[in-house]
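can u pls check wat happens w/ S-adenosylmethionine
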Amino acid sequence: MAPMGDNVVVSNVNLEKLLSMKGGQGEASYANNSQAQALHARSMLHLLEEALDSVHLSSPEVPFVVVDLGCSCGSNTIYIVDVIIKHMVKRYESSGYEPPEFSAFFSDLPSNDFNTLFQLLPPLANNGGSSMEECLASNGHRSYFAAGVPGSFYRRLFPARSIDVFHSAFSLHWLSQMPESVLDRRSTAYNKGRVFIHGASDSSANAYKKQFQTDLAKFLRARSIEMKRGGSMFLVCLGRTSVDPTDQGGAGLLFGTHFQDAWDDLVQEVPSQH
Ligand SMILES: C[S@@+](CC[C@H](N)C(=O)[O-])C[C@H]1O[C@@H](n2cnc3c(N)ncnc32)[C@H](O)[C@@H]1O
């Protein structure tokens, strides 16, 4: 939390408790508004498969465990997990091994609409001990055991050395919190009440940069404990073309100024309701 006092314009609420994509399967839901992410993820499949080619093939006696961090509540996560598992099955088979059983953990903040995600999951194919080949041949079915894991990826989520593959796409740009100094009127990093850094001062940009570095270090530390030896991690992060962090380009205008306008409208509406 930000220090309390006259100089702080907004208390630093815990983003983890608030943040979520729009749940359900309605017109405005994440499930129906994530085609751009789907398109970009598909364009990177060759890189994902390259990363998977370096994963150590563990004993078929032990389940192979895949995790999607920041899975949200649409079908992109289901698609990617399916790609990962199918690729690993091929690798086991081409190496002359029987593929193991697969587990997939779909992880996001507790406020994520896991109910919608679970409803989108295809039924489990492994019905009464059928073989992996039969599972994969049964279209419209999944060949892995699924579970949801609520929690922030900036902390530990899994037991030590239990995960073979971590995947995370379009999620790591969400910081764990607003940097306190951008909310503090006394600080040179004070961002004048704005909710974005497009066109902000170098100090404000640096405060966000520091927060990102702290968060990313926590993320990597937690994963380094949780990953099995020989495991792999594939991260897809949003970027920008300019070296200047205060120039967020088109996305800065879309996610910055438009959000700011919407936020200002909401703030103005509150007093008029009383
Ligand atoms: C834009 S969605 C991406 C969903 C999915 N990976 C895709 O490609 O469609 C970003 C997700 O990251 C999640 N997220 C943000 N901060 C998080 C955190 N600290 N821990 C876990 N998930 C987080 C959000 O709740 C959201 O569901």
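The CA atoms of residues 111 and 157 lie 16 Å apart.
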